[in-house]
Amino acid sequence: MTAQDYKSDQYVRFCPGCGDHAICAALQKAMAEIGVPPHQIAVISGIGCSSRMPHYLNTYGFNTIHGRGGAVATGVKTSHPELSVWQMSGDGDCLAIGGNHFIHEIRRNVDLNICMFNNRIYGLTKGQYSPTSPKGFVSKSSPFGTVERPFIPAELVLGARGTFFARTLDVDMPTTVDCMKQAHAHKGASVIECLVNCVIFNNGTHAWIADREQRAEHSIVLKHGEKMIFGANKDKGLAVDIDPQTFVPRIVVVAADDPRVLVHDAKQQDPTLHRLLALMGQERFTDVSDQQSAVSDLPVALGVIRDLETETYDEAVNRQISEVREHSKAKTFDELTQTLERWEM
Amino acid sequence: MERQNIVVRFCGDSGDGMQLTGGLFSSLSAILGNEISTLPDFPAEIRAPQGTLGGVSSLQVNVGHGVYTPGDKADVLVAMNAAALKVCALGSKFNHAGATFTEQDALIKRDAVVIVDTDALTDKDLEKALYKTDNPFTELGLPESVQVVPVALTTLTKESLKDSGMDNKAVLKSRNMFALGLVCWLFDRPIDKAIHFLEGKFAKKPALIAPNVKVLTDGYNYGNNLALSVNQIRVQSTDRSTDRIQKGAYTSIAGNKATAWGLIAAAEKAGKRLFLGSYPITPATDIMHELAGRKDMNVMVVQAEDEIAGVCTAIGASFAGDLACTSTSGPGLSLKSEGIGLAVMAELPLVVIDVQRGGPSTGLPTKTEQTDLLQALYGRNGECPVVVLAASTPANCFEYAYEACKIALENMTPVILMTDTYLANGSGLWRIPALSELPEIKPQGVPEELKGKYNPALRDENGVRYMAIPGMEGFQYRNMGLERDAEKGSISTNPENHEKMILARQAKVDQVADRIPEAEVWGNTESDTLLVGFGSTEGHLKAAAKELNCALLQLNYICPLQRNVGDILRNYERVIVCELNSGQLAAYLRAQVPEVTLLQYNRMTAQPFQVEEIVEYVNNL
Description:
Strand order of the largest sheet of chain B: 11-10-12-13-15-14-21
CATH topology of the domain at 3-220 and 300-314 in chain A: Rossmann fold
Strand content of chain A: 15-25%
Distance between the termini of chain A: 65 Å
Number of strands of chain B: 23
Strand order of the largest sheet of chain A: 2-1-3-4-6-5-11-7
Radius of gyration of chain B: 26 Å
CATH architecture of the domain at 3-220 and 300-314 in chain A: 3-Layer(aba) Sandwich
Number of helices of chain B: 21
Low-confidence stretches of chain B: none
Largest interface: A-B, 55 and 72 residues
Strand content of chain B: 15-25%
CATH superfamily of the largest domain in chain B: Pyruvate-ferredoxin oxidoreductase, PFOR, domain III
CATH class of the largest domain in chain B: Alpha Beta
Largest sheet of chain B: 7 strands, mixed
Shape of chain B: globular
Oligomer: heterodimer
Number of strands of chain A: 12
Distance between the termini of chain B: 37 Å
Radius of gyration of chain A: 22 Å
Shape of chain A: globular
CATH class of the domain at 3-220 and 300-314 in chain A: Alpha Beta
Helix content of chain A: 25-40%
CATH architecture of the largest domain in chain B: 3-Layer(aba) Sandwich
Order of helices and strands of chain A: HEEHEHHEHEHEHHEEEEHEHHE
CATH superfamily of the domain at 3-220 and 300-314 in chain A: Thiamin diphosphate (ThDP)-binding fold, Pyr/PP domains
Largest sheet of chain A: 8 strands, mixed
Number of helices of chain A: 11
């Protein structure tokens, strides 16, 4: 299988320069490398730029209604766990109108691969602030700056007891492909936050980490079992420090050869460290006014941050059905009606 | 005394077990060869303040033969407390202090037998039920022809169980069994059959069998030995020589259970797995309860996070090849509108069950109404046709749930099945079918020769699109809520194409009329008067038509209408559309058959019709 086998005959209609092109290409490449044939894959989406994705893939696809991709995908995977099911969604589709389905598919741990495209803007409706737009962000629906506090998607995923969270960047194809392959391998709800640039309405939103010159200093790609080292010269490492006054743990930057440098354990059940890692650098994206003051020197974490195996919803539901059927006397309608209190008339 | 049929109403506090007692008596009567029709009526609160008028729960059952409805008024009332006595003797709208009996509003007949627990008529009980004096019977102004049978139910139950070692609370809970025993005596029910039946009911709680049987038997013997000053009543068995009752195995079934079983039967017949996506909502929840317990039938139930996810998980399961359903009531149907629209646009089979309740908004969750009809027909954005069916008896909820699945799977369309509280909670006799007797279901598939050339716009000769299912090699396609090109199946915003697709989706629903039986007129077809109804009013309208000696057209297929409905309506001089709403079916029929003048009879009390009221209305026209 090659990426070509996963391309549909449809003309890709994302804006020129949109980050979604890169995610689309990465997905076709990842699917080819995973090797599940196209007819055994279902790609489900809601509404928004990202939700156009199913049309560009030669798999089974369903471009549903706004926010409901998660619920439809849950129905597909639960009824047919043999399919590889992907959900394409955006920060508006997933975190605003579809927020309820998003937290519940994660809580249930349905075996879905969820690509949540975060461009911090509503693109298809032409530029309103989204649930991930920073406070103070000026848009068509917030001409004086939004007064809302944004979500940090990782916090929401961990708060819903998520078992898999990864973050990637549109311009980092290798990390994106790797996150997608690991999401597929992970049994359960796998959320990949894909940081994408909206060239029309929110250009440069992730520039701090997306700019080629700065990326190595401003981000770190976490890999399970590997030391947390970053920087253009690979000279910086991450360690945990406990504040002696408050006992609050925090991540600090130390020298790469410092013995305290952490080794990434994505399989750790306790989400405390995963949360600290996922929140690194997020203050830059939550409040426009804090861009200068509250900025730490911590890099933004990319790659697979959390990857925990536990029974999935679709497995558990189907297992329960098999168990009951194994022990039940009645397995057909006619046998079932025999169990009724019945009399002849 | 022998009667063709008799109406009994069991009433008490919502914790007194009146639904159970009434249900046991109904089933027992059915086993003994009676037709039955039940009407439960209970408050929305699980436990309203004890002993108050708002907390009264009751179940009315009509047993005998020629039974169409649970009956307008009771021949026998069993009242477990002062509040129940007041509410059921006077009618629920006259339950304020100082209200007195009027024949029109009373829920009992003028010559009713009223069995009442005298231990539950203390000053405190009377005060809670807003009596002003300490003599409830005089205060209520019951006519002398009403025969009051005072029984110290509580004392007698305590006496019966004094050696049982049960605590006082458990003993008091058994009062209903004493009442049931007494009623069994009154109707000359063989006590051994009742005991056998009770043992079956409590099979899973064996510790409860002995005390309940003891109280039941003591109640029966109390009637027998003390020779209460009432005559025993013998109810006629069903007349087996007529064609009313088809020979076969029967059970008593509630509408919600019959609905659930209809879906199970259809799935097996179609060779599909049954999937239900649903969210708890009164009065539809029992469908989900029943199906959640039917894993032995390979049923998959997802209790979704909300109504929207209920329909959307079902749409996902349908897309993936299951027989997919969602069950709800009016407020939930509103929330599912966009999802149903998606299923219309995606042309996927989907069964939506709307168990109607009193609306709008939260309305009257435990009461019955037919006010969702126009919502089912039109309540979506865009030109968005679906098939709409309505069940009309608790038992035929099975038949129409089955039919809804058949139509959905064969025609690639959502089908909305309307039932309501009255059908959902009421019970009736159901002739148990064998799967082999039920009509074939041939789900739409896709011809093998379309492999590699398939797209979701391709249709068969009936205009029904072919369905490929994920997992089939060489049939990959993209489904969507966006408009699709009528030839290529991909996204299209072409103006002419849009109109063509709207007409294609409408034509697909319209052609269902070729696949359903013609409508039949019931009763005196020679009459110049035709009553028209739909759904759950069938029993009441049959009883009314019989009394009026006129004809009745009761619709189960609402959209599309059966081909001969227009001809039938044109055939009568006087056509009266009777509904439990302000005239929704009448409005729909006026649009479909504009040349016919329709009269209307409408009630909006969130209660079933009263047969006598319909008869009076028609006679005064």
